[in-house]
Amino acid sequence: MIKADMKQFVLCWLFNLEEKMFQERTNLLQKKLKEMHFDCFLVTEPTNRFYLSGFSGDDGVLLITAKNQYLITDWRFERQIQQECPNWKLCLTRNYLQEVCQLAQKLNLTALAFEDSLSYANYGFLDENFPGDLAAVTQIIEQLRSVKEPAEIQVLKRSCQIAGKGYLAVLDLMKNNSAALTELALSHYLDGFMLKQGASGKSFTTIVASGEHSTWPHATATNQLIGQNTMVTLDFGYFYHGYTSDVTRTFAIGPQTTEFRELYQLVLKAQQATIQAIVPGVMGSKLDKIGRGIITQAGYGKYFNHGMGHGIGLAIHELPNVGQRFTDQLFPGQIITIEPGVYVPGIGGVRIEDDILVTETGYEVLTDFDRQYHEL
């Protein structure tokens, strides 16, 4: 009986902690509203809707005012909302934007901020029916999301840990499997393994690219056999309790050319130098310049044709941006990827990607598992 009571206490404590976390996020947005001189904010992006409210349903919008918070959805989710976000004022309807306009009329709201991803048709409806001014805003909630809370960091760390188990399982399979596998078969194997480890699903289509296919940075797995004496690039990310890791490793089946081996060491050198430069305040463009400079100096600059990294969290691509064009400064609590790659036709492709937490004094590598060069 004591154990049952303790379990109930822990569950209640976790629920209250979660409720407090969601409320603090909404409070921050309300503060932003005041700074921007709006009296309400319309949230239509599903990930942002969940981030602020905890509502996991797949339909609905949020209307946040200076003092209140409304969740507007339909009757399918009535009982779900009572459990997930009881502190929100619930409006049940099939016409979400009409309800927004009616609330605005009732509450004398005259300045609405909306996310710039809103469709043109929905904007047109608001433009015709909202009793006040409209303004699109960019990445307001995304900026809040980019700095992770301690509870989020713990979940992301676990997500990265099981990613490590997945990679080691792939190496073990390829080392001990006598029959050749296709890229698709290896992709499906990893997907299944990660689900057994507690992942809820993949955050993008798992990339398995072998041989010449590895020179395509975003190749999709095919029915091509992974033969002997070939290289393999494996890029994967899986959700764990809503948060995703994002990892790339490159390995080989059998001996490779000297140039390919040197290519691997070059990419690894560029990646490690970039990671070591991570501190609060550094700009994404500076990080990109460090790793890209090493690759360019070695004569492979034209073969590195994508950015150095990006933020991760509830989505596979979040703020901050890490690339040549971005002056985003890093803050403690952000989690980014660092993923240089070189793709040389006739030689092979190499990409190595890790997930990095920005700390108060520097960084912590969350995917700190096997990145040495393997010829299985």
UniProtKB/TrEMBL annotation:
It comes from the Bacteria. Residues 156-360 form the Peptidase M24 domain. PROSITE patterns: PROLINE_PEPTIDASE. Pfam families: Creatinase_N, Peptidase_M24. One of its GO terms (molecular function) is hydrolase activity. Keywords: Hydrolase, Metal-binding. Residues 25-147 form the Creatinase N-terminal domain. Belongs to the peptidase M24B family. PANTHER family: AMINOPEPTIDASE, AMINOPEPTIDASE YPDF. This is Xaa-Pro dipeptidase. It comes from Liquorilactobacillus vini DSM 20605.
